[in-house]
Write a structure and sequence with these properties.
The protein has a single domain, classed as Serine Threonine Protein Phosphatase 5, Tetratricopeptide repeat (Alpha Horseshoe), CATH 1.25.40. Helix content is 73%, strand content 0%. The chain contains six helices and no strands.
């Protein structure tokens, strides 16, 4: 939208994405944080990304938490860490096809 000169519409769309990302789910929170970055609210986004990464580094993380942490690592350009998170997610739940796809995409 922004490339089409629809700056206000683009800003409204990013605002809506950030608002939608306030839910409890990992991927929703991740995408909300990425929208906040686009809105220039990097500090708030960083808090969310850190929270998602900490959830995965705690005791007995779920495969889903590890998958989301991998996406967060990728968003911060930490590809090696992202690969490790996706690999760990698949160790816990080999049927988590999303992590398998991301692991394939993250190959060096």
């Amino acid at each position: 939208m922004q490339e089409e000169g629809k700056t206000e519409e683009a800003h409204a769309a990013w605002q809506q994405a950030a608002e939608d990302g306030k839910g409890p789910e990992g991927t929703s929170r991740l995408y909300g944080a990425l929208a906040l970055i686009r809105l220039g609210q990097a500090r708030e986004a960083e808090k969310i990304l850190t929270e998602l990464l900490e959830k995965a580094s705690g005791p007995n993380p779920s495969a889903s938490a590890l998958y989301v942490a991998g996406l967060a690592d990728r968003a911060e350009n930490h590809e090696d860490a992202a690969r490790e998170e996706f690999r760990r997610a698949l160790e816990i739940d080999p049927s988590l096809w999303q992590a398998r796809i991301e692991l394939e995409r993250a190959r060096p």
